[in-house]
Amino acid sequence: MLKALVFDMDGTITHLTLPLEDMRTDTKEYYITKGLPLELLEPADGISSTTGKARDYFLNNGVSIEEWDQMESEVDEILSRHEGFAAATATPIKGALEIVMKLRNLGLGLAILTNNGRPALDMIMRQIPLRENFDIIQTRHESPKPKPYPDGLLKVASDLGVFPSEIVYVGDALIDATAAKRAGIEFWGVCTGETAADVLYDAGASRVFSSLQGVYETVLSALG
What we know:
Elements lengths: L3 E4 L12 H14 L13 H13 L5 H23 L8 H10 L3 E5 L4 H8 L10 E3 L12 H10 L6 E5 L2 H10 L2 E5 L6 H6 L4 E3 L2 H12 L1
Parallel strand pairs: 1-2, 1-4, 2-3, 4-5, 5-6
């Protein structure tokens, strides 16, 4: 039985304004300047996959865990600068908050799991009423590992007091689908961000909607 919904934020609840390509490029360039061989990276690598490859390479080639932690901290600062610029102009997708309130009235637990950092999220919450509409809002800084790792979703499920089989993750990106699949959690896609419907289905989405209105109607039908 469905007891909770977890949402991605950018491209799902708020308009996607993050300069994702710049963030991915800057992450790759940082690690390359530190000595990561360019040939280890592929054009499709995002922030998380690049960081995972960098971690494996550096820790297997004489870099201490303390030195690696410092590198990760510096990358986090790079990402946070990008996120801060985007957060300053963040706006909710039309109708998103109204749908969230309707879902809350159905008695469901609600959460956000985002790879945004906490400083940017706090800035967004000063502009958009998110805190009062969600039981949990978890950033990469509170997740054991960021998406596409499943750890963040599993932590949210635990904190909500539900089993993975009792929640659905709703998002707009491949990284959302991957995290849900690894966590054993059903994934519903929305085409309000960076990814087309067929791509979301191919990535494992059981349902794909043009907006969150479709999510609400499906949940209402399931609970009715």
